[in-house]
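Input for the complex:
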Amino acid sequence: MMADGPERAPERALEIAAATHPDVDLTEIDPGIGRELVPLARLAPEPVEEARRADVDQWGRSEHFRALTRRAFEPMYKHWFRVEWEGFELLPEEGGALLVANHAGAIPPDAPSIMHGIEKDLGRPVYGLAENLFRALPVVGTLWSRSGGVAAHPDNAYRLLHDEGHLVLVFPEGTKATGKHYRDRYRLRRFGRGGFVEIAMRAGAPVIPIAVMGAEEAMPVLFKSPRLAKALNLPYFPITANMLAFGPLGLVAYLPAKFRIRVLPPVHFDVAPNQERYSRSRVMEESERIRGMVQDALYDMLRRRRSVWFG
Amino acid sequence: MRALVTGLSTYWGGRVAQALEQRSDVEVVVGVDTRDPRTPLERTEFVRTDSSHSILARIVRATQVDTIVHTHLVVDSTRATSRTLHEINVIGTMNLLAAAGAPSSPVRKVVLKSSGLVYGANKADPYFFREDMPRTGPATTPVERSLLEVEGFVRDFADDNPHVDVSLLRFANVLGVDIDTPFTAALRRPVVPEILGFDPRLQFVHEDDVVDALMYSINNDIPGVYNVGADGNLPWSKVCAIVGKRRVALPFVFTNLAAEPARLLRLWDLPPEAMQLLRFGRTIDNTRYKRAGFQYSYTTASTIEAFAQALRLAGTIGDSSPSYRYEREVEDFFRHSPAVVRPDVG
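Predicted:
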């Protein structure tokens, strides 16, 4: 066996020193010298103070920041949109679930309303999937990320649902819905290519369809300028009723439409999770079925609605 | 085990050679590099080569090494021009793999130190890169291109030589007081850069964990590609806060241009691939290597904390790293003179 371990290294260092610097008197030197030449015994890393670890989680969401936004958004939620939920008890207390909702309004107010309501009354964080376009925006992108926005990459969604068991909110219509004209209100666009179904299947998580009424009227898109959209590299450039009414302020000023959010019964897929791929036709079929559920719920809600502003 | 370490004079080569020397079952450690070693070594035999390792085939034949540890991949593009980078990374690895794969070559294990740079940093990226995920944009910088090319060679080599265990480790950004990277250099300055409006999450790995990870692949038969990065990630603003540095915002357009004066003044030298990280960040998924049995000593947060503490210590007592100068005659004397009483090794 090797006797020449770390114990002997200081002596060895002295030998080297003696050979390289014959003019130095080495007898005076502390025998501990040279110890730094050998790997020191590893100090156990100290636990870092929790506060300094930042409350930003590995997805970029900050509970601290969320609490601030909730405080700011609460008057809007309670007094402006007067959000009312139906079937709130269908939301799970624990475990991953993919919340699938319809999307509307040029700058959609449905996402913050759903996230706000669930976080306030269920006490669970909600991660909102959105186009990765946000990631490239300075300031806005950071705020979006801190408030629970996550780029809609399939692997991100899978991790959130499967590995971490979080609630994940997704709008499968995407910008096709938020950029649609007011005259097309409450007519759901295509649900993408059904990617959300595949992710839920793979993660073994249920899909919880959610129908939102009110967002369409909060910021109606009257005209669109494809040329400006192209120039600004945006998915669409809307001229909203709010802009006509309030000028540039219309970008942030919503009309006080009454919000109703209906949670529909969870859809469980009877397939094994973690498969490499799932039947395309099955995925499309399920996606179409969920779209139908949300569409039917919206028609039902609209039938009962007496006033856009008072519900 | 008879081991050959490339890049002996780099921080990693030196540390790996030191660690190999400690092992009683390692009969021979041969180290190659273009420059003199900078770490004191007990029994490693140093051979000077050119940057592209063209005499490696002869060395392998002559020394009959069975394990090659390739630490000599440049991942810090501030250290080399793109031509030398290509020479060292691409041509060097090509020669090394040719030597290892020669007929009747005794080599049975190759461990390489690559980098998370191969994944890039783009807006379309997944938040956590697994080993089998491709990058989402084309490689734009010479260092990324050369590393991708190297990984291609390594894949081919592993396919052609099933009897050789090939481990390719992709490391996250390394932090530690003894290592110089664009990030450690920037974090030593009184002010550090950020890109206005961006606060990406970054992942780090402690320098000790890097050495441990390399040694773990040397000691165990676990061929494959592995990410090595500490658990967790932290926003850049928090990293700077823990280290206690103020941030200066660079504009989010023409960022590299705006960083140029700081480069010229030698304030920070953050290459374009580091700037890309300050915009989008990157976290690599470390579960595969953990599943192979590797244990980290540090998380990302404790890596940064340890670095901050070491910086504070250095700020008080000055640079305490031991100075060492390689002297061929002295080293030869200790290794080969009959006058030196050497304990039996092996």
